């Protein structure tokens, strides 16, 4: 309270002194009234003038649950057993640099990559990158009672990668079971039955959404465990269930400071683009009639299109990938093995406008990160019936007026900071990166649940429901 200051400043004037006393008295009674009407605490707390309304972390505190190391650190120490899929098994190099992966020495590629903030980042290390960003988050607390959300820093994707191809469901499901069994015993769980807990996955949500106990079905059933249903999960691709949220795949660009972003945006803005469009991906010979097959055929048949065949060229080399996207106006982004692709984000990073064929590839996924109005930053060519689909992509793209293309590209360039994960060792001041936006999104979601509980409603309503229409087509 300011009373002593007022008194000392005015002590040689009786009128002012009385006036000060009067003001102090009024202020104090106002304070009492305010305090009593807002608190249910005992009267003796009134003398602690400790209400701090200027706490910039208010409503943003996160408690990192101190889970056993077998759910995270152990996996890094045993990275030689982790796999990227069915190809090379060794994930160890990708765990370097806080999960960013091996640094790309760009003395030889300075025209393509510009600054020294590039890494050979593997998508599955998002769990490690996110955890490291979380560790340097400005509003962490060790007092879980103060926390708005509880982060569970388990590397569930790295973990399940050891068992996805194991033909034994008990083995596939076991570490998920262990994790929830550990979590529910903690006092933090009991507060909101886990509804303020969230997880991160560098794998798509479907890897944890096995619906039947049958070896013919893919994945673990982690997200269908009752405890897990009470938690929210951020993943590179969401599922049809409301408690899985999509956030961007990591790209290879990890700015340390604002200036890295500005420099990159400026380079990309002035790029000469030789090709109208490009497709990077591997053909799927077994899916002759797939949209991917049709796209590859069109691309191969047009001198305006650059096709990068990932079955023969190294598409996980950021230098190769960036070179193509920087040189193209549009990139084609059909669904791959799942709805989404990392390539969407590599394309945006290079200022290359994405062309989508299915709403589940981006529009119904990255709602926190992408503009609501998809026409601002992308082109949509729906494919409802693959067999009958015969749109000439080149013609569609050529019909877009030049000024619209430039406006779209500018939106794409503005998206860059929002879809990259900044280096945990630096700090962006003027930008919210993909991590910041994801965290805001999840805090808001949890606050809404808390509000429901406050109002006496059942927080489970709608929380983990399946949304059958999430990935269906709409024309508008
Ligand atoms: C209020 O909280 C902010 C942020 O935590 C802190 O910087 C500031 O010193 C606090 N002010 C007082 C009067 O306690
Ligand atoms: C850059 O190119 C030179 C000459 O081709 C080569 O000797 C050197 O190893 C390259 N550096 C990197 C980091 O790839
Ligand atoms: C939480 O506790 C740990 C270990 O005592 C300490 O290192 C860390 O700084 C604390 N974090 C916060 C946000 O107070
Ligand atoms: C699956 O693995 C568990 C645990 O190792 C084992 O007890 C069980 O016998 C296995 N089941 C089959 C069908 O092999
Ligand atoms: C999940 O949350 C509900 C309340 O919404 C609670 O009744 C239930 O016990 C919780 N489940 C677990 C496994 O904690
Ligand atoms: C969406 O964006 C496009 C392109 O900027 C614009 O023409 C259109 O009016 C916008 N639609 C809405 C509903 O704002």
From TrEMBL:
Keywords, sorted A to Z: Glycosyltransferase, Golgi apparatus, Membrane, Signal-anchor, Transferase, Transmembrane, Transmembrane helix
Keyword Nucleotidyltransferase appears in the UniProt entry: no
Domain Exostosin GT47: 56-395
InterPro entries according to UniProt: Exostosin, Exostosin_GT47
Main location (coarse class): Golgi
This protein's name: Exostosin GT47 domain-containing protein
Species of the source: Pisum sativum (Garden pea)
Entry's transmembrane regions: 17-36
Family indicated by similarity: Belongs to the glycosyltransferase 47 family.
GO cellular component labels: Golgi membrane
A GO term, aspect molecular function: glycosyltransferase activity
Domain of life according to the entry: Eukaryota
Signal peptide annotation: none
Pfam families linked: Exostosin_GT47
Lipid bilayer topology: Single-pass type II membrane protein
Subcellular location: Golgi apparatus membrane
